[in-house]
Design brief:
By secondary structure, the protein is of the alpha+beta class. It is built from two helices and three strands.
Length: about 90
């Protein structure tokens, strides 16, 4: 089963579609949408600040595709070449 056609179900981009999930390892409590402070020439962006039920804080911020690819490459290299402390394997916790 493929992803839904975004043009039809989103009303031409007027409605948000749920296309993915995040697993945080804990329940999420309060969430707040905040404006990202940025240069005035760029389009307005938002981020989501969230708190977990065990006291953690998280932020979801949009990033450019090029930056995402660099971070993903760095994460793969760190997972491969660094020692895993206390028996924690980052590949196993997904």
């Amino acid at each position: 089963m493929g992803l839904p056609c975004a043009g039809l179900e989103s009303g031409g981009g007027q409605k948000l579609l749920r296309l993915g999930d995040f697993h945080l390892g804990s329940g999420v409590g309060p969430m707040a949408r905040l404006r990202v402070p940025d240069a005035p020439t760029r389009p307005q962006r938002h981020m989501v600040l969230l708190g977990t039920l065990d006291g953690g804080l998280g932020v979801v911020v949009p990033v450019a595709e090029k930056r995402y690819q660099r971070l993903r490459y760095l994460q793969q290299k760190m997972t491969t070449f660094l020692k895993h402390r206390a028996g924690l394997n980052p590949r196993a916790f997904r």
